[in-house]
Write a structure and sequence with these properties.
Blueprint lengths: L2 H25 L3 H8 L17 E2 L13 H8 L5 E4 L8 H9 L6 E2 L5 E2 L18 H10 L7 E13 L5 E13 L19 E11 L7 E7 L7 E6 L4 E4 L29 E16 L21 E2 L5 E2 L3 E13 L6 E9 L7 E6 L4 E10 L15 E9 L4 E10 L12 H8 L1
Parallel strand pairs: 2-14, 11-17
Antiparallel strand pairs: 1-2, 3-4, 5-6, 5-19, 6-7, 7-8, 8-9, 9-10, 11-14, 12-13, 14-15, 15-16, 16-17, 17-18, 18-19
Amino acid sequence: MQRSNLKRLAAVAIAGFLASTAQADDYAYTEAEVENSFFPYKTYTPEFPGYEPGMVINASNVDQFKDALDPGFYDHLKNGRFEMQTKKTESLELHPNYIKATREAANNPPKLSSDGLVENFVAGRAFPKEPDANDPNAGIKLAWNYQYGYNWGDNAAICPFYWKYKDMKSGKLERTIKWCFHFLNWKHRVNQDPTPEFTDNPAQLFRSIYSKADEPFDLRNTQLLIHRYKNDLKRDDAWLYLGFQRRVRRLATGQNTDSFLGTDIIIEDFEGYNGRVSDYNWKYIGTKNIFLPFHRHNELQLTEEHKEPDGFQYVDFGGTGDCFPKTTWELRKVYQVEATPKDPNHPLSRRVMNVDAQTFTIPAQAQFDRKGDFWKTFLICQAYPDKYHPLSDGSGVSIDDCFSVADVQAQHCTTGQFKGLVTPEMNPPQMFTVQNLRKSGQ
């Protein structure tokens, strides 16, 4: 072989080695970065000019805090729809096993494939490094951190779960549905046996959601089952069992963006975002201090309505149309992300998501219609697990405790009140099957 060709091959080999080394460095992370990701408030106190914890933000002073608010909730406050009671920022620390799994992956960290999937991932937070505005993949890395987050842990149940349809203008309560929702992670488990995954999983599922309505009578036994696959490029499978029809039907592609049972919610909204990462384009906007709904459940003024036999009480609602939870708000470190659907027929043009930097939940987001006009807010208040219910003590889960989807165009809202129980006994694997839909519906 000629010397010139040997030099050319050597140059290509060196370039390839340097590229692979640079890529490895891009995903590598240190113990200090893991510590900062999970315990940001050890060394950092969120601040904003003129803000003192405990103050109330309302129409009279909201302009002063516009840059510390989700754009949709700024609109609510500006128009006097509710008042925001603030509190001191606290650290909500996730389960030690989830943090441990993140640390253990540092020597061989997960990476993004060319088609935007996560490779070499076992469990924990896939990308714990601070997002970099110069990184074109910063947005999708944050999306994967949310997708593989410790939301409800390895499995949990919300039972009961009350949804209420409300006219925002009149405050009229139109309908109440009493549900039970169940969640199960098949893979990337860190706390409950089996870990890190179920071996009996021929379909290679990542996560399943099962729900069943108990009330009212006309919706009794209505059930929904969703299967999400490990391969994010594979479409979810979903089945609906309608109690009055007594049959199972598969949901067609696209129905996850239709109004679910006449609410202001779409299936894709569940838990903040219940779609595939590959369904959207993800843009990291920046790191900001934003007010998010975090509270100590047992220290709130709770409602007597639906009080449970064990004494558990639910979050109360107020404001315009009783559409806004009586929660508290903390100024927290937030990664703001703009998510744009790839499907041109999607009812949304974009979501502005405020991702809590410590828990990777999405407690507040604004949604915009196809024309780009502000349409809805979606709030999911987060409860500290050790001030909630005995079955959630020590769970290390940021507990979803209430939600509100407020449609400013239709002047309508759907609200939710949770009793979230982090316990495997309520979520056996056989529950998450089509056969169970038929059996439970009889």
